[in-house]
């Protein structure tokens, strides 16, 4: 553990398993699961998996904090599938009618729930575990079914209670639980992914309902995130029974595989110039760009920098200076770069946990307002051991509240930052005003 910088706390922490093979030897991994791990390329386990999987297999409660892109999803999916085993028993094999799911995976956004569902399906292939992603359509169908008087053996909507695993956002689950349509008393594993977000005010009440509804004496709860602030950690402590706590590397740190840099852009309009400059110098798609809010107009103004460039030239391409061959070549290259540019303009919450494949560069077009949001945003690159880059633009005004703390995150992960940034006086945080969609100079 020391060599791998895996910090584990708690009583009788189970020993590490470093590979799928070792896991199989020590825990008799089900053949289909072992096979699926091999197919997925999970021969070696990631550091969080090494400790979290044995802990969850032992039925322990767990609080795990590990960097973005470090395989936390499989860290709970693998032990969950192993623990569930064959569901043949439940489907008329002598266990009686199903009485609701035996595992529930909760994520803060529907996008993330969908991604987690895909990971479960991938690792569950060939097994007999049934998995449902709770969609709006399913909820509507369950409500209609309930109105039509369909009674499941366990009292819930029959179409839902048959699943072994349910993946969902909290609100959808609670909607069904509150109406008695999805009983959770059979749940043996409840996972809160992005737990610090789920324990924040906006979600807390719903999560509380779910914790209470998973009332089986043998239920174990597992909380995963790349960030865990002390207040949230204390809250987690009040929920979990003698948990194993796992921290991989430094707590609340950026992934070491991301090369981070800050770019001062002067004023708001400097951002587009800086972005264009980056494209001109050559970028490797796909690229993710983060803005402060998901306003469509702000996104679309970012999506066609070339068009805006023409407009600034006076309206039409004829008014642009005549291109010299090198300029034309540059323009063509720039056009190609723009076409190749896979823009996904996101706000922080929707990006949390998303595993966009092969993102080489993250641009924080608008400065993140907290270090937590910074860590999650830049964590969309440098995943699964790959390397990535993150460039953060800042103006004097918007960076002031969190520049020092973000500079500290950068320093902690070995990136160079000027000393003056680390010496900035801490400021009382103020809610930043909405950023104007159009720079003032172009009204
Ligand atoms: N043992 C493994 N070996 C190789 N790749 C793995 C392994 N486990 C997971 N991965 C891959 O690592 C990538 C990141 O995994 P995952 O999305 O679970 O990260 P995460 O830790 O949940 O990140 P975040 O904190 O951003 O949510 C995925 O593409 C996944 O397929």
Describe the structure.
The protein has an 8-stranded mixed sheet with strand order 1-8-2-7-6-3-5-4. Residues 305-323, 337-343 and 435-443 have low confidence and may be disordered. The chain has 2 domains: 6-248, P-loop containing nucleotide triphosphate hydrolases (Rossmann fold, 3-Layer(aba) Sandwich); 258-320 and 327-437, P-loop containing nucleotide triphosphate hydrolases (Rossmann fold, 3-Layer(aba) Sandwich). Helix content is 42%, strand content 14%. Helix 3 runs parallel beside helix 4 and helix 8 packs across helix 10. The termini are far apart. The chain has helices at 20-27, 31-40, 47-57, 72-84, 110-124, 136-147, 158-161, 170-178, 195-198, 201-213, 230-239, 270-281, 296-303, 305-312, 325-340, 348-351, 371-378, 396-399, 403-412, 419-423, and strands at residues 6-9, 62-65, 103-106, 131-133, 165-168, 189-193, 220-225, 244-248, 258-266, 287-290, 345-346, 361-364, 388-395. The protein is built from 20 helices and 13 strands. Bound molecules: adenosine-5'-triphosphate. Adenosine-5'-triphosphate binds at residues 41-42, 44-46, 49, 68-74, 226, 353, 355, 379, 383-384.
């Amino acid at each position: 553990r020391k060599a791998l910088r895996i910090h584990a706390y708690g009583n009788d922490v189970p020993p590490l398993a470093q590979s799928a093979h070792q896991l199989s030897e020590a825990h008799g991994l089900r053949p289909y699961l072992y096979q699926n791990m091999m197919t997925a390329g999970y021969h070696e386990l990631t550091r969080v998996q090494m400790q979290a999987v044995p802990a969850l297999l032992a039925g322990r409660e767990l609080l795990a904090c590990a960097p973005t892109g470090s395989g936390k999803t499989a860290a709970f999916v693998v032990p969950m599938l192993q623990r569930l085993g064959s569901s043949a028993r439940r489907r008329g094999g002598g266990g009686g009618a199903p009485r609701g799911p035996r595992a529930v995976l909760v994520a803060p956004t529907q996008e993330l729930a969908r991604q987690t569902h895909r990971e479960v399906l991938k690792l569950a292939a060939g097994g007999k575990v049934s998995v449902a992603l709770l969609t709006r359509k399913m909820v509507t169908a369950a409500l209609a079914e309930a109105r039509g008087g369909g009674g499941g053996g366990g009292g819930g909507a029959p179409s839902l209670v048959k699943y072994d695993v349910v993946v969902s956002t909290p609100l959808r689950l609670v909607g069904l639980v509150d109406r008695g349509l999805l009983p959770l008393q059979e749940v043996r594993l409840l996972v809160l992914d992005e737990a610090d977000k789920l324990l924040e005010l906006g979600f807390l009440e719903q999560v509380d309902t779910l914790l209470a509804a998973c009332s089986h004496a043998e239920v174990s709860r597992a909380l995963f995130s790349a960030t865990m602030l002390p207040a949230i950690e204390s809250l987690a402590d009040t929920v979990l029974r003698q948990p194993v706590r796992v921290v991989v590397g430094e707590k609340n740190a950026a992934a070491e595989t991301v090369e981070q840099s800050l770019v001062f852009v002067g004023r708001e309009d400097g951002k587009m110039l800086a972005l264009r400059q980056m494209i001109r110098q050559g970028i490797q798609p796909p690229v993710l760009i983060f803005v402060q809010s998901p306003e469509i107009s702000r996104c679309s103004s970012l999506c066609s920098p070339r068009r805006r460039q023409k407009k600034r030239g006076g309206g039409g391409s004829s008014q642009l200076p005549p291109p010299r061959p090198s300029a034309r070549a540059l323009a063509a290259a720039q056009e190609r770069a723009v076409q190749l540019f896979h823009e996904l303009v996101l706000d922080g919450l929707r990006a949390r946990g998303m595993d966009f494949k092969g993102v080489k560069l993250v641009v924080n077009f608008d400065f993140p307002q907290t270090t937590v949001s910074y860590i999650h945003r830049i964590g969309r690159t440098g995943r699964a051991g790959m390397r990535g880059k993150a460039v953060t633009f800042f103006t004097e005004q918007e960076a002031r509240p969190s520049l020092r703390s973000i500079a500290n995150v950068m320093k902690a992960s070995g990136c160079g930052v000027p000393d003056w940034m680390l010496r900035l006086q801490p400021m009382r945080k103020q809610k930043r005003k909405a950023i104007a969609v159009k720079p003032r100079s172009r009204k």
